[in-house]
Structure to design on (1144 residues):
């Protein structure tokens, strides 16, 4: 909502406050002023000029040489506007004038001819092109004949004005009108509101003699007022009206349309004008449209209607889409002499549905959608009659044609002053409350510690006690509310065990050298299940904005890998990212099974100590080590079993299992996948945190620090390449019994000195007895048993 | 023999003085004091002397030997120190070369902001509640006083999966669920999480973003409690000298509703580009829980009241760190992410 302060002053005394200060007061009271726009900003030395003569420039086809009377002199100005003509009154920027954007007018020579200033269009005065009347949109603006030559344009045509741009919340539909804003400002500044005085002369003939009215849908249209005005002259509106409309963000058209728009802005009540003769039938019938009925609206679009749409008809065919937009077939034009003015109350739901169905929003529909003031429908019609008789020379027929079944009683809200104070945590005196309600013009009766408040129909947002609490508080001032803390029983706050574990994971990952990433949950159908361990049915949006964001992900890895590629494409060769986030799996329930996952993607160098020549590229075991460390932190026993998953290297992939359940996967990207993503060797891992966090961790009890030394023996084996170290380790552990404390691989060799198909793996075995110092003989006895078991399994000892 | 001894002594002392390193000196030791050296030979030759001369001669040899030994030790100490110094000299490193890098990652800036807010409210006795991102229309809208047909719940603005299921548009459904689960008992929670809206991604819009909301319900919870709580939050989060102001606003699930501004942390209220010359920065929306919301979750709105507030970690991070484009949070450029390594404590 754009509010011209000059216009506002018609209804309320703004106490000559500077606009910014007025704006601040309005903001602090509850309606946010988004901008304070000085309409004359950057304008100076701009006067009315009279074009005495206008001849073609001899050297330039498109330029004219004009002799312009600017009051104190007649001077030559070159003008290139197509609509310039002798005899016009025009806007002249004199040498030394300033225009918006810092432009300064100087004397100049154009193709050899002197030009002492510039004849201006409205756009050059800073008015948006879409607001400039169509006739002047492509050229200069022509002022009325009676404009005083040499006078200041800025003051004479109301450009010395400031506009407040209000950012209205949906509840404050009442402020979508100048009167509504006047009531708000009146309440803030403690000033009276002055309503327009409506007087005009009626003709003897009655409106009802020319027009009949049928309302077929009273529930959607409980009030309809029509007035008939004849012998009107359709022409340009006077300057003041055009300027007010432009200040309000409305483009002037002609006096009839401008009057309906002016009253829309003034009262917040949408009006529509029909050409009486084009209605053809002298009848207005409001009904729901028939299926596939057609109407061409004023914007030139033909629309196919449905049963939901309320239409205004001439008894036969639609002439307007009720409350949304008029029809082209009854549009007011230059030739119109008699008009029907419609002022009606349409139920908001019906208008919202039609507006949505046709994707058509107008100033009218946006007000109906939020609900107009039922008590302004009739005054708005009267106001229109008055202005049309004043500005269009119209003769208003007596009375109105009216259908009225609208309930418009004021809502009564009962609330106690104690309630108000207890909700606010304040001690506002009853007198102050009554004063505020009085400023709001809410009629109030106070008795028995209870306020009985009649809420004017313009404030349909006020329904319950809490709404009154807000009205009192916002006008009393939110700054007056004290700061306290809730006096509730103090309970210790905190994170749940799950949330604590999530933070442990985060800290561990970052300590391990990974950066935390965040990616989108929505992805393409194609990547939704890539790398997912459990495939479920896809979950697609009903109305995605693009295919790329159409489906909920079932794995974190596709987007995480996209982030890796994003970095490597920017020459960041080593990337180590992790993410925690939900994947979305179809479950039994109508809601999805949202499972929180942890994913890792690493590429490039893991260790890079370049000047010391130490470089280590990422490999499977870097990421495996991270997972093993995490398992130790969380006290879970994870196992790794060889596996295959699409997109991963078949020889370098393992499933991560916990108590036999597969909870994750770790692997190197398949070379094809790497190529497709333009990546070098990349290792990924994804596992379910939900599964990982399932079990409660046991209490930590310390184990005694060893009092006796342990003894280490090494064994180097030659094995077939297909035998896995993990298998041998298990064998060693079972043969080693309880004295064997630890087994560790300390060397792997797959070189030339071995038979083809063989590898050498060396293990370091640690023996320990918590009760005593082991003797060499005791250790040898156990160790020999281990070696024997190894040999029996087919391993050879490496000499 | 005495002359021979003195001759030996002079020779030995000269060689000791001439030795320029430990090795040479050790050679001198072996040459003169060793088992096959001349002094040992002299002692061996004493058997040939008359018995009465032997003690005198023996003493003399010992004196010479002790003196040579002492001088040798002395010299040895000097040469050893010299040797160590030379070694140290040769071992000097260029200490300006870079250290061995320790690999270290860090949290995403949004996590950083969210955890800071979580921790602050945990210290005030709040618990953290979370809920599903794919939510029922009922919890996302209806339970929050946004009945079907309400203009604020346009299909165009939300990602629906079916008529009744959508990606949550705010974290408020967690509040609705918590209220329902608590069955009329007091509540003090913070709800962080991802939310989704049907927006085109650009510098200031993202179809996925995060929110963090708070809810307190109890007996006699007043608007002053909301103001006090938000004031503590603003000071802890943005600096002790921050002031707050509340402006009336509108949300369907609160009444009265407010927006909270804080005095600009960059200019302190003077007016600058961060606060768009107003001296104030809008941080969050809040209000007293609407009685309809309480009643719908089974609370007696006459007995228990509450307040709620909600904010966007993206906006807070953008303000705090001066980030100009919301898409940075979801692109995961390492050059962006790794800037949030260091502490601000």
């Amino acid at each position: 909502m754009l509010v011209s302060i000059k216009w506002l002053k018609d209804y309320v005394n703004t106490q000559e406050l500077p606009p910014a200060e007025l704006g601040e007061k309005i903001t602090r009271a509850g309606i946010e002023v988004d901008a304070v726009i000085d309409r004359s900003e950057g304008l100076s030395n701009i006067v009315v000029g009279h074009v005495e003569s206008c001849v073609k420039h001899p050297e330039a086809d498109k330029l004219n040489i004009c002799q312009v009377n600017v009051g104190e002199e007649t001077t030559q100005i070159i003008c290139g506007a197509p609509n310039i003509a002798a005899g016009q009154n025009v806007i002249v920027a004199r040498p030394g004038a300033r225009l918006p954007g810092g432009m300064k007018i100087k004397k100049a020579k154009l193709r050899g001819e002197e030009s002492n200033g510039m004849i201006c269009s409205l756009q050059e005065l800073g008015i948006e092109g879409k607001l400039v009347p169509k006739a002047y949109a492509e050229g200069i603006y022509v002022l009325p004949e009676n404009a005083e030559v040499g006078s200041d344009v800025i003051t004479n045509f109301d450009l010395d004005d400031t506009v407040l741009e209000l950012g209205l919340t949906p509840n404050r539909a009442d402020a979508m009108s100048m009167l509504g804003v006047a009531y708000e400002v009146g309440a803030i500044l403690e000033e009276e509101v002055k309503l327009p005085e409506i007087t005009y002369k009626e003709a003897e003939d009655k409106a009802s003699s020319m027009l009949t009215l049928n309302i077929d849908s009273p529930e959607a249209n409980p009030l309809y007022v029509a007035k008939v005005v004849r012998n009107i002259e359709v022409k340009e509106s006077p300057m003041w009206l055009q300027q007010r409309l432009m200040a309000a963000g409305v483009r002037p058209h002609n006096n009839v349309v401008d009057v309906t728009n002016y009253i829309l802005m003034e009262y917040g009540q949408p009006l529509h004008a029909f050409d009486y003769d084009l209605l053809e039938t002298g009848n207005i019938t409001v009904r729901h449209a028939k299926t596939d009925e057609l109407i061409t609206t004023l914007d030139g679009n033909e629309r196919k209607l449905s049963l939901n749409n309320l239409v205004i008809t001439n008894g036969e065919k639609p002439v307007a889409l009720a409350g949304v937009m008029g029809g082209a077939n009854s549009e007011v034009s230059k030739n119109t002499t008699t008009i029907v003015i419609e002022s009606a109350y349409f139920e908001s739901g019906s208008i919202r549905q039609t507006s949505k169905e046709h994707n058509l929003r107008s100033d009218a529909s946006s007000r109906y959608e939020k609900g107009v003031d039922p008590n302004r429908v009739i005054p708005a019609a009267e106001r229109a009659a008055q202005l049309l008789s004043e500005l269009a020379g119209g003769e208003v027929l007596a009375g109105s044609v009216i259908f009225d079944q609208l309930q418009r009683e004021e809502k009564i809200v009962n609330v106690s002053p104690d309630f108000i104070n207890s909700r606010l945590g304040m001690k506002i005196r009853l007198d102050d409350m009554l004063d505020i309600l009085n400023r709001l013009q809410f009629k109030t009766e106070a008795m028995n510690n209870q306020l009985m408040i009649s809420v004017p129909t313009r404030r349909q947002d006020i329904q319950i006690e809490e709404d009154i609490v807000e009205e009192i508080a916002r006008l009393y001032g939110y700054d007056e509310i004290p700061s306290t803390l809730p006096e509730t029983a103090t309970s210790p706050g905190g994170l749940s065990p799950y949330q604590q574990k999530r933070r442990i994971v985060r800290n561990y990952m970052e300590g391990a050298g990974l950066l935390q990433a965040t990616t989108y949950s929505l992805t393409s159908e194609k990547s939704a299940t890539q790398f997912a361990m459990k495939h479920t049915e896809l979950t697609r949006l009903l109305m995605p904005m693009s295919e790329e964001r159409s489906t909920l992900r079932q794995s974190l890895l596709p987007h995480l890998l996209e982030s890796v590629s994003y970095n490597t494409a920017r020459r960041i060769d080593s990337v180590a990212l992790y993410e925690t986030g939900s994947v979305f799996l179809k479950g039994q329930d109508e809601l999805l099974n949202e499972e929180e996952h942890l994913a890792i993607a690493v590429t490039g160098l893991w260790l890079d100590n370049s000047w010391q020549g130490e470089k280590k590229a990422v490999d499977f075991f870097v990421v495996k080590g991270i997972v093993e460390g995490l398992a130790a932190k969380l006290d879970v026993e994870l196992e790794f079993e060889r596996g295959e998953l699409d997109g991963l290297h078949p020889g370098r992939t393992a499933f991560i299992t916990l108590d036999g359940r597969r909870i994750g996967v770790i692997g190197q990207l398949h070379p094809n996948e790497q190529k497709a993503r333009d990546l070098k060797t990349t290792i990924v891992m994804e596992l379910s945190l939900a599964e990982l966090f399932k079990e409660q961790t046991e209490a930590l009890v310390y184990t005694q620090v060893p009092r006796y030394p342990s003894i280490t023996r090494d064994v180097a084996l030659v094995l077939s390449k297909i035998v896995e170290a993990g298998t041998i380790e298990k064998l060693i552990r079972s043969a080693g019994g309880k004295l064997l404390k630890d087994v560790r691989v300390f060397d792997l060799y797959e070189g030339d000195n071995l038979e083809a198909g063989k590898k050498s793996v060396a293990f370091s075995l640690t023996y320990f007895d918590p009760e005593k110092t082991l003797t060499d003989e005791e250790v040898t006895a156990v160790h020999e048993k281990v070696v024997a078991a190894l040999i029996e399994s087919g391993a050879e000892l490496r000499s | 023999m005495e002359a021979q001894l003195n001759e030996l002594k002079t020779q030995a002392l000269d060689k000791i003085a001439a030795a320029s390193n430990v090795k040479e000196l050790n050679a001198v030791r072996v040459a003169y004091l060793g088992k096959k050296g001349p002094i040992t030979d002299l002692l061996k030759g004493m058997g040939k002397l008359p018995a009465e001369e032997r003690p005198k001669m023996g003493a003399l040899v010992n004196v010479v030997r002790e003196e040579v030994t002492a001088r040798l030790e002395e010299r040895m100490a000097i040469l050893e120190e010299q040797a160590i110094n030379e070694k140290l000299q040769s071992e000097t490193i260029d200490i300006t070369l870079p250290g061995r890098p320790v690999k270290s990652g860090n949290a995403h800036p949004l996590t950083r902001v969210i955890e800071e807010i979580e921790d602050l409210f945990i210290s005030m006795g709040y618990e953290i509640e979370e809920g599903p991102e794919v939510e029922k229309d009922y919890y996302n809208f209806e339970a929050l006083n946004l009945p079907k047909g309400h203009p604020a719940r346009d299909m165009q603005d939300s990602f629906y999966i079916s008529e009744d299921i959508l990606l949550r548009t705010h974290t408020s459904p967690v509040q609705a669920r918590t209220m329902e689960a608590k069955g009329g008992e007091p509540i003090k929670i913070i709800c962080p999480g991802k939310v989704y809206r049907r927006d085109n991604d650009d510098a200031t819009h993202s179809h996925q973003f995060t929110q963090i909301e708070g809810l307190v319900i109890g007996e006699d919870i007043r608007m002053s409690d909301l103001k006090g709580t938000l004031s503590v939050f603003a000071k802890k989060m943005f600096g002790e000298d921050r002031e707050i102001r509340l402006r009336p606003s509108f949300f369907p699930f609160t009444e009265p509703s407010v927006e909270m501004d804080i005095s600009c942390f960059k200019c302190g209220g003077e007016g600058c580009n961060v606060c768009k010359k107003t001296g104030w920065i809008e941080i969050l929306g809040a209000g007293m829980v609407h009685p309809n919301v309480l009643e719908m979750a089974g609370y007696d709105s006459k007995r228990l009241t509450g307040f709620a507030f909600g904010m966007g970690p993206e906006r807070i991070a953008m303000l705090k760190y001066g980030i100009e484009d919301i898409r940075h949070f979801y692109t995961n450029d390492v050059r962006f992410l790794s800037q949030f390594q260091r502490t601000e404590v």
Notes: The CA atoms of residues 607 and 685 of chain A lie 19 Å apart.
